[in-house]
Amino acid sequence: MSGRTLAVVSAGLGQPSSTRLLADRLAAATAASLREQTGEAVTVTVVELRDIARELTDNLLTGFPPAGLRAAVEGVLAADGLVAVTPIFNASYSGLFKTFFDVLDEGSLQATPVLLGATGGTARHSLALEFAVRPMFAYLRSDVVPTAVFAASEDWGSTSAEGGLARRVDRAGSELATAVASRDPASSRPRSVVADGFDDPVPFEQLLTGR
Predict the structure, then answer these.
(1) pLDDT per position as a tens digit, 2-33
(2) Residue ranges of the domains in the chain?
């Protein structure tokens, strides 16, 4: 039986964090719906940006991605779908979140189904998903599902049946699962992994000959 893969990118700074909690719930809802729709196994890979923050900075300064960052990028680009969740700071995504997606080569997320999520202290920050996060993924030409999920502090204790966090998570997860299920797993799309300039050096003798 073939399987599907989901990548989860969480930009939470704390440990534990509400951002990671939301990311896990969105991934679980997507995986459950995807198994129901396809009957296939679902593998979930989580990229916790907090753990590779130094490597992201090293890559920005040197242009060479350390091993941990390369593995994270490869996991995201190899996935059939992506869940991306960021805390909201100053009405936008976090710098750590933006830095990770800056590392990806142009076109590497083209046509990839993506579910967006965000967390913040108050619901007043929820529009940042539509005015900051969604436009970034539109620029990356990803296939972003209609429902984005914002979780404010008060949402975690809410038991509202109408529009509650659990209901929004289930709806968004179902949308991402449908987007992933509708794609041919064998179909090709641009996949570009950050390259290390020292992986395939030009021999010194060849440099001397000018060839």
Answers:
(1) 799 999 999 999 888 999 999 999 999 999 99
(2) 3-209
Please give the C-alpha separations between residue 126 and each of 27, 114, 146, 154, in angstroms, as whole numbers: 20, 18, 15, 13
At residue 26, what is the residue type? L
Phi, psi values for residue 11, rounded to 5°:
-105, 25
pTM: 0.86
| 156 — pLDDT class (breaks 50, 70, 90) | confident
First to last CA, the chain: 49
Q: Which amino acid is at 25?
A: R
Which residues make beta-bridge pairs with 33?
A: none
Helices and strands, counts by H and E, the chain: 8, 7
Which of these, 199, 190, 191, lies nearest to 67 by C-alpha position? 199
Query: How do 81-89 and 113-120 pair as beta strands?
Result: parallel
CATH superfamily of 3-209: Flavodoxin domain (3.40.50.360)
85 within 8 A of 115, measured Cβ to Cβ:
no
Alpha carbons 92 and 156: distance in angstroms, whole number = 21
What per-residue string of b and e applies to 94-123 under the rule 16 or more CB within 10 Å gives b?
Answer: bebbebbbebbeeebbeebbbbbbbbbeee
Residue labelled with tokens 């108050």: 122
Q: Is residue 59 within 8 Å of residue 70, measured between CB atoms?
A: no
> Which of 86, 47, 38 shows the shortest CA–CA distance to 70?
47
